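Hi,

Apologies if this is the wrong queue. I'm a grad student, and the batch job for Ig-like domain-containing protein from Labedaea rhizosphaerae produced an output file that my downstream script rejects. I'm not sure whether the problem is my script or the file. Here is the sequence I used:
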Amino acid sequence: MNVRSLAAAAVLALTAGLLVTTPAQAATSVTFTPQTILAPMLPKEGVDQNVTPVGSVSLDMTATQTAYVVSKMRVNDATVRSLFDNEVVCHGPGGWSKNMVIGQNVYDVDSGSPLQDVTLYTRFLVHPGVAGTVTCTANVRGNSLSRTSSATYRLVSGYLMFADTSVTNATNGQPVQSSVSVGVHPLDQDTPVQRLPALDYFDLPSTVQGLNVVGDVELMVCRPYASTPCDRYGSATVKFTLFINQWKSDGSLCKTDSSIAVTQTVPYWVHHKYVPLNKADFTVSTAPGCIPRFNAYVKEEWLGGETSGIQGVSPDLPDGRGSTTTHDSDMSHAYVLPY
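Support response: The file is valid. Your script probably expects a header line. Output copied below for reference.
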């Protein structure tokens, strides 16, 4: 399946709620079994987070190969408002690893909120740079947001797949991908604009005709340690715009696109909101002077309400419930699927 048809099928299914695929090899695609997920209550100190593996896929890769991995999870029927994380943990040859997590709170079934039914996509590029087998495992991570009661919620459906096993790299041989650094990067009255995640200038082969650009953002409401007190019954309003630029050989702008934009008003009790942005059909210009050199970023504009922030790498996540070993997982990130 080529990248552009993938965008129409698997990536743009994010808004349609549907997936159209061609038959996949068993080793590179798995459908999750519906199941009840335990979400332990908050302890007096720290977090007791449950980690439930729900499927794994493997792919034999060459040293120059880049693949595209996608995990979709839908959950509902929560007994208590709970954290729901869709995490993918990948390991490969030579000790290579790359992990990504996207999260959002799921409201309890009696809340009457549409946020009691949540679908999250975790998707990114894998490029170990060494020949060997890459194995990726999808985990449901979560905990109850109550200090007096554990919870359960239902994994209704989902899948993990290598959606494209031959993604075009930049001319430097690397995939076009970038994640936001660790921490919560502020959005508030003092810092009303951020441009995260950002893809710095990258050059693509002259044969590339178009770009499928994705910016997946985690917005946190009521940023920890902010100087302004948080109203837990308040919300934050933020506008998100995906910018894509193509450049000329003399360094001037050839073409720009900012057609993908959304404004979100997010209450504190959601706490962190998944905001996906996708321009699937940015056509490469061949006008005089234009070259296949690009950059892209998501611009966030804080429009009012509670303090907020863009979440970067989540550090020191336990490998399992009660585990003493940990790993880091990227959160807000951007990448390009050239076609």
